[in-house]
Amino acid sequence: MKPIRSRSVRAIAAIAVAGSLALTGCSSDSGNESKDRAKTQDDAASQQKPVQYADAAASNGPAAEVAGAKSGGTINVYVQSDLSHMDPGQIYVSDAGQFANLVHRGLTNFQEDKNGNLKVVGDVATDSGQPSDGGKTWTYKLKKGVKDEDGNVITSKDVRHTIERQYSKVIFDGPTYVQTWLSGADYRKDLPDGPYKGKHLPDTVLETPDDETVVFHFNQPRPDLPQALAMAGYAIVPEKQDTKEKYDKAPAALGPYKVSEYKAGKSLKLVKNTQWDAKTDSVRHQYVDGYNFTTTIDQASQTKRLIADQGEAKNAIQWTDAVDTAQIQDVVSNAAVNKRTVKGYQPYVWQMSFNLDKIKDKKIRDAITYAIPAQAMVQADGGRYGGEIAGGLFAPTLPGFDAKYDPYGKLKKPNGDLEKAKELIKEAGVKEGTKLTYAYSNSPRGQAQQVIIKDALAKIGFDVQAKEIDRATFYEQIGKLKNPYDLYMTGWGQDWPSQSTVVTPVYDGTQIADGSPNYSHINDPQVNKLIEEALKLEPAEAAAKWEQAHKRIVEEINPAAPVYYSKTIQLFGSNIGGAKYSVESSYIDINNVFLKQP
Amino acid sequence: MLQFLIRRSISAVAIMFLIAAFTFFLFYAVPQDFAALSCGKNCSPENLAVIRENLGLDKPITTQFWDFMVGIVAGRDFAVGHCSAPCLGVSFKSGDFVWDSLMDRFPLTLSLTIGGLVIFLLFGLGTGMLAAWKRGTVVDKLASGASIVLSSFQIYLLGPIVLGIFVYSTGWMENPKYVPFTDDPSAWFIGLLIPWAVMATIFTAQYTRMSRSTMIEQLQEEHVRTARAKGMSQKYVFFRYAWRGAMIPIVTILGLDLSSLLAGGVVTEFTFDLAGIGRLAVESSLTKDLPLTMGAMLFGAFFILILNILVDIAYAFIDPRVRLS
Amino acid sequence: MTTLTKVEDAPNPTGSDAFLSVRDLRVQFSTEDGVVKAVDGLSFDVERGKTLGVVGESGSGKSVTNLTILGLHSPKTTTVEGEIVLDGKELITASEKEMEKLRGNKAAMIFQDPLTALSPYYTVGRQLSEPFMKHTGASKKEAKARAIEMLDKVGIPQPQTRFHDYPHQFSGGMRQRAMIAMALMCDPDLLIADEPTTALDVTVQAQILDLLRDLQQEFGSAIIFITHDLGVISHMADDLLVMYAGRAVERGSTREVLRTPQHPYTWGLLSSMPRLGGDLNEALTPIPGSPPSLLNPPSGCPFHPRCTFTGEVAGNRCADERPSLAEGRAAACHLSGEQKQTIFIDQIQPRLR
Lengths: 598, 325, 353
Description:
The complex is a heterotrimer. Chain A has helices spanning 3-18, 32-48, 56-59, 94-103, 156-164, 177-183, 225-229, 299-308, 328-332, 335-338, 362-371, 374-379, 418-428, 444-459, 474-478, 500-507, 525-535, 539-557; strands spanning 52-53, 74-78, 108-112, 118-122, 130-132, 137-141, 206-207, 213-217, 257-263, 267-272, 290-294, 316-318, 341-354, 387-389, 434-441, 462-469, 487-493, 560-571, 576-577, 594-595. Chain A is an alpha/beta fold. Among the domains of chain A are: 46-71 and 87-249, D-Maltodextrin-Binding Protein, domain 2 (3-Layer(aba) Sandwich), CATH 3.40.190.10; 344-567, Dipeptide-binding Protein, Domain 3 (Dipeptide-binding Protein, domain 3, Roll). In chain A, the strands form 5 sheets. Chain A has a 6-stranded mixed β-sheet, with helices on both faces. In chain A, strands 9-10-11-2-12 form a 5-stranded mixed β-sheet, with no helix packed on it. Chain A has a 4-stranded antiparallel β-sheet with strand order 5-6-8-7. In chain A, strand 15, helix 14 and strand 16 (462-469) form a beta-alpha-beta unit. In chain B, strands 1-2 form a two-stranded antiparallel ribbon. By secondary structure, chain B is mostly helical. Chain B is globular, with a radius of gyration of 24 Å. In chain B, a hairpin with a 2-residue loop joins strand 1 and strand 2 (81-83). The radius of gyration of chain C is 21 Å and the shape is globular. The two termini of chain C are 25 Å apart. Chains in contact: A-B, B-C. At the A-B interface, helix 1 and helix 8 of A face helix 3, helix 5, helix 7, helix 11 and helix 12 of B. Chain C: This is ABC transporter ATP-binding protein. Chain C: InterPro entries: AAA+_ATPase, ABC_Ni/Peptide_Import, ABC_transporter-like_ATP-bd, ABC_transporter-like_CS, Oligopep_ABC_C, P-loop_NTPase. Chain C: Keywords: ATP-binding, Cell membrane, Membrane, Nucleotide-binding, Transport.
């Protein structure tokens, strides 16, 4: 996932008005630190367990009650700008993902216990899916009594419609996993108009033998399908309700809440969906009467309001925004306020991607990797509540995360190892003053980090040419195969807690293309082969293969220097109950919240 | 006079057209792939092409401009439906019709403007005239002093101070928010009270200074002295003779202020987290949402032109020399 | 020479038969730079039905004196001392209310520039009617009839339609006529005309002057006619007061002052005035130097720095001692009567012929 793009676009306005964004967070140690660190490591640890696929029993509603939960009241939601999308097919980023969790339902869903252990359960389907034919065929039965907000019963035709509409031009922003698995990379050619002109995918691909059954046929095992289907992007769009492009403004709800009013750039109101039946849902609750989003409040203002905790702010939460970096100290140094925070890892790993078409010598890549002062880079992105130095390219949120993995000694030498770097540069025979082109996004973070990188690389003899790119099109520019840059900072996060959603898109040589997130253009036969093998295995069995691929990538190829794992800290009002960090969403757990005094 | 109005209206339309053309081509002169801006996580060339087609960016610029201009007059069709005239296009980012977005934001901007206007005209002109009447007295000195201090304040400074006192620390008031007048007049009033007060304080100060100095200037006019020499009472001379002349500079400045307020009070809106035309304009230009930016610009230009005409009409009412020439 | 019998030391103003009597008037403005002595010890009288001409350069205190009579000075920055008695009533101490009743009613004023002195925002008719309604309690209709009558009287054609016009629709001469009509609305006993013809061209000027004279005969008002133009004054005034630096330097009947002027300043004024039928090649003789600063007036005779005859006076009297203005026909100058006569006949008169 690339939250960076969507978030930076949203942050622009606030920054423009605020003038400058102070990047602080560099401060004296407080007593909270060790506790915080311990807590986030706890959360991360839970994320390391492989996801389990649950049976029908676990998929049955209602969901376990949250301790002390009360019903009623409305939660106020502070957001800096609009949700990117409301049409589930278009939803790929987390702000809309949180929203989707309240409004939409897919075939499957993640269930998170109070320790943060994740299970895939059936949501609209009775269970997480029945594989056959060695994982090439997956069968889903639909629960009885699942209806849309107008009371229409959801059938297998609606599921087929949901998948097929992703082939049309109406959808261009959502995930493409399932379509690609079903029909290949050129999937759109198989059904150019989607289902809208009466054509459907053949039964050999997607089959609906009766109203309650959906069968997916793949040409190779797809063990991750239950997790892919849990993405918001594959939530059900009932055939009768589909208004194509207009659906993005007024989607039909299957979840506990529905959209009652939406005003672009201003506000969004969710109210209870009376057609939602708790008995069919093992994950969600309907404690509050609704959610009122105000989509005009920048992070600084959100933080200020929540610290003050006056009036309506008592009932307010942050959505996917974090505490304003300039005010982090005010938050963590005040015990009463700090109590009202959730903290945790986000799934993103910030890395210095090398353009392997340009920097071909691994010694140079290693030298730069050693030279980067990771600590300073973290400081430039909110300090220890914004990130943590990375040893490898797997985030703490992925199964198999090893906190001690540190082949380049980044944890031991957070300010970089210039001696080692210089040595390697000498070995590589690089002349003093060799030019390197570094592309960076013109976000405050990008600009602050640019200075650090330029300085660090100058110390090992490079003449760094920093090229600024508009933050809005940064990934598009560096995503071009023939881009003219030598190196650039990129961030990528998992789509679900599986290494497959990191290694495959970012480091698979067969995926290299314009616009692909394989920004380094790594194409290593060994890695490619490991990916191919791992993808066919159940998550638990695949773990070893992924670990092997990870080590090969980091230690023997080094296409991207690990810099830091991103973290978040969010605030909520004093009347919010049940607030906790969600491992699945990596934000406040929206399934858990209620008002203490409705 | 009628002829004058017709002439002004025609030139206003022409200016609007020029502004539209200018913004349009200026944006396209910047080498920028607008499709890439709306392209999310899967920014493959295929998806880019789909977006380009959806936004109509695959057509030649001249065709796009023609479609845009036709849309304003006659409306046009988009994937999301028919956009009736005046159609300013569809936002790249939200996919909403630009006109609808503007109309959605306008009530807030209008409320802010009208509320502020009532307060600052009442207090500003009142205080200014009182100070002019009591020129040289303690009242005048207090009013002039306070207005100099306050008019050097800015909304982004005064706003957070007021919020800090009345909202964050005491909790006497809620954070400002906009509730449509038609939904709940008292919530509308309470929700906008702080922005009005802050905005009006600064404007009141400016209008106090302006009305004081123009009144004093007018009181020194010869015809005002003539009126006194005729035995007219001081009050009569003040309100009939001097005030009439003082209205001309005040109306001029008011026209300028109003048109910029109606085009969107950017600072006010950001200070109080409100979503009006100003925020729309700034955000759209930062996200390079061309249709929205153009829409906001044209909307602002519309008010500038309209208010210019209104100010000219006001001149004619105030000053017979304008009316009869 | 009939009216100017009482002078500076007149003991009892009420005993005077003058309609307006000004005694030892001192007007001072406080400005940022200091105190300006705009009028410094001025005394004069005006009788009913007569015209007093007041001449002097700009800044000599002519206009200030007359604004002060009507109380139109700014009370906050101005100090007024002395006595102004109009028809037995003390004006300096009068309340603003009393002054309002008097202005435009018993005493009216005609200003110099009718374009700026009339409000551009109201019709001529309205501006004429207002004071009439206020002072006589007349209805709008009566006021309108009176205004049309007056407009007719001052020679404005089609007064019924012109009543509704705005000042900018009038020509310069017409505006001045309207201004005069406005001043005469309430039959004032005293009319102060402050350079009423300066802004007009010569033919119109003559018409206006004729008009003023005719009206004076009809209404019997006393007129104070302020001007810097001695040519104009010779046709208008019965008596003349020459002012310099806020003081009267010479007074007498118009005829006397113009025929046998006694003060070097008056000589200068006359010499610098072009005459009809004069030799075109003959140079005019302007008064050397410039009018004194009233912030810091010269010691002694205020005219001494510009006076060419100080050498004729023994010692340093001109610079040290302020010459007084005697009663009646007089000039405030240290030159002896004989000297004045000799100098005038030998040096000045030839230049005036």
